[in-house]
Amino acid sequence: MLSVKFVAVLSWLSAARQLVLAADIDWESIKNSRGDKLPDFSYCGYRSSDKSLPGSTAASVVVKASSGDRTKEIQAALDSTAASGGGVVELAAGTFRISPGLNISANTRLRGSGVESTTLDVSKLKTAGLPLLSMGNGTNGRINPSFTSKITDKYVGIGARTVTVEDGKQFAKGQTVFISRAATEKWVRQNGMADLVRDGEKQTWVPIGNLIQQPRIVQAVSGNKLTLDIPLTDALDQTYMEPYVAAYDLPETNPEIGIEDLSITLSPTCAGRVYNESEPCNAPAIQLNPWTVDSFVRNVNITGFNNCIDVQYNVSRITIENASFFRDRDTDRPGGYPTDINISGTQVLVKDSGQYGRKTAKAFTVITQARAPGPNAVLRHHVQSDLQELYPHQRWAHGFLVENTNANVMFVNRGTAGSGQGWPINAGVAWNVRGGVNVSSPPLGINWAIGSTGPVESVSNGTLVSNGTAVTPKSLYNAQRQKRKGTA
């Protein structure tokens, strides 16, 4: 059996061969007639990719392996470390039996001695939805704006960094804001989502009045013009919506949390079990709770879970690196497939990760959920078969990059799937994808496939550039980051 690292190297070499005859692309010039440009994905990741992940730090506490359930002992070590200002709780080599419900607070890291040395072993998930490990203590309560101001621009395209408001005097540099707009009947209908019916029952895509938001920080104010820290990943069109800027006070966040260098195994396995929201088997191995920021998961192996990593709404600036998901059981259902990484947050960077185990275990390897705000990015993701797909899941997430992967990438209308998941993604970019590609654009949006070298579905009606020939730069994310930092 090939090792995970060797498989990844083979995948990289294959990609390198394909890029020998690449076509040069001026990515900054790619835009449509409305002015929509490629989103800027360089802000994804820990500390907006401005800083490297934390290096090796001496452990504050070392917990050694022994028999019996170690949940209470590990939790006590995490709590005492957090209370003293933070640090590293290190698990020595060995197997640690634990139960669901471990929580890691701000400024605290749980570190093993390596994926082949330290294993967290769980025999049963308990309450439905209770994660094995959770990062941060935040809740997803309603954020009430301190003030709002209407956006007066007739159209603000994807990739724009400025908006004009009715009253700029209310805003100041550093103000946290949501670029907001409520779903309108006109917008839903124009996207073809107003009359969804499944088995005789009406299906609702994005409910009228639900907010589609883009969290940003005001970088500068000039009269009524606001400059934002990150370019927009969703367009604002006065014809179909009434966009506005909502200022809010940032709640307490939970930064600098890490899980690294360990394996997590659920046995007997839950992988592939029939999806049921009340079923404990659907609880994730790792959950990043709301308002967890500037945190990471790296060098982890997860085996036996239906759902592995859940990044919740209002989570931001997260890196998931070198995470391997092992599916040790076939999926025993025709729909509602399990997921490796579930993204509802923003500025999430998934890199050098992949799915392994049974090639016949159908799963969504990375998905975005309803109205997940961009930018989010997946780099160099590996799968073993075309049954494992990178597939935005539902209801108008926006700003999602997938590049240099052998997985099938699906940016398509899901119609009445689920309860009316409809158009799941806007401003999606498939860049130098080697797997199959099916990229379509919603009537009021746009998705791109650039440099696709795998099979492209004939029904794809998205914007296809250099179809059949890989492009340079090899990585859009890297090119954008170099441009932003002045190192291009």
From TrEMBL:
What stretches pass through the bilayer?
none
Keywords, A to Z, come to: Signal
Q: What's the protein here called?
A: Pectate lyase superfamily protein domain-containing protein
**Which Gene3D superfamilies would you find in this protein's record?**
Single-stranded right-handed beta-helix, Pectin lyase-like
Keyword match Signal? yes
**Cleaved signal peptide residues:** 1-22
Which parts form a coiled-coil structure per UniProt?
none
Q: Which organism is it from?
A: Clonostachys byssicola
